[in-house]
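Memo to structure team: turn this sequence into structure tokens by end of day. - J.P.
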Amino acid sequence: MRKFGIMFGALTALLGLANQTQAACCYFSAKNADILQPAQKVFLTYDPAEKVETFTVQPKFEGNALDFGMVIPTPTQPKLHEMPRDFFKHLAVYTILKKREFPHSKLMPQVEGRGKMLRLAEQVRRDSNADPSSREPERKPTVRVLETGVVGSLDYKIIEADRADDLFAWLKNHKYSYSGDEASLNFYVQKKWLFTVMKIDTMQMKRNKDGTFAGEVTPTRFQFASEKFIYPLKITQISVKDKTEALFYVQAPYKCDLEGDFSYQMTWIPMLQAGSGCMPSGLPGGGGEWLKDFQPQQQVLMQRAQGLGFQFVAGQRPAPGKGGRIPTTMEWARKLAKADVQVLRGEAPYSEKVPDPDEGFTQADVNDPLRSRAILKVIQFRLTNARLDRPLGYLVREAPKEDLAALAQLAGHIQEGKFVTKFRKIFLKDEMNEDLVIIPARYNDAEDRSEYEEILPVSPP
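Reply from structure team:
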């Protein structure tokens, strides 16, 4: 079975690091100083017809090195592009889950109970529906620099190597202290992958009182040809002391999933099952249809999840199972329609607006004995109409105005007709033995088209 993980390889002497979570990247430092990457966010796209993949990454760094860098392996020579600095902040705002709200009056002495509204909503929904030690003496190095350049504020080199020991020596000769071994490099050399090396100046990052720095570099997009939707991981294993958390946004013509035990169906199916139990009116986003399509496989999935020690608890993040392993969780999923893309330009609403039945009235109006009865009648009329018009309530979410205006920077990257799936995975070090292959979300002939843009009663925080 393939394992799933994140992308960067590292060249740094990670000496004396505290026992804390690190991200799945490795780094190098020219000053033999400590570098820590506590988090990483990734946006990936794939065109299966053209066999073209992109990934955009923004790692967060902490440490005390004067300069350091990253090594990124790819199956073919990539094209590099600078992305907006707050690209992942915009993605986070765009994918905030919605919640259902109902109009309510602050002026009415008594309003219709939520329980009755939910029962009405349920009724309406029912009615609708390689060995590095074998060196040859006195031979010329087999490392070739294919390209040098600058992307944003970062210098980079794209390198090709025939032997891991030569690449290891090249890094050393260029005054980088490599924290891993030649076998980590050889994993990719044997596959004839290329390596992009990028240098980072930490003087541009925020400094703490103790002299260490903390910050994020400008996101960089890598575009390259690839026969598979693949994400490099093996090289990152050397920089992870214990475990690492990663957040992925994946855009493709279809909904995407991870292979085997890394599939988010381990938590998605139980959440849909629990949600259907407390939502007799039906699951939103096609969740009920996917449960039906997946039904023949549900028992097998649940048995495997139990074998791994995974237990779904409504309203809670997944707890570690056997060996400390934590299942993948899906956090947002949607096939983008025209209106979803129009949100980026402010041409479609980011959130529905809940009507205010008290609009135009004040508490003084209600306290006026001559007007109170008529005003309360109007308020009740508005409430009744709103609940009849939208018996399931209004889908709402909130974000600052300046953040909504900045969503325009996602235009061109978020595409109509594509499926965007957001998922989170905490990796243990021994889960990073192979690269990740991202696959279509499906079971036999059934495609998982279920969407997740609305908070369910059983959703984790």
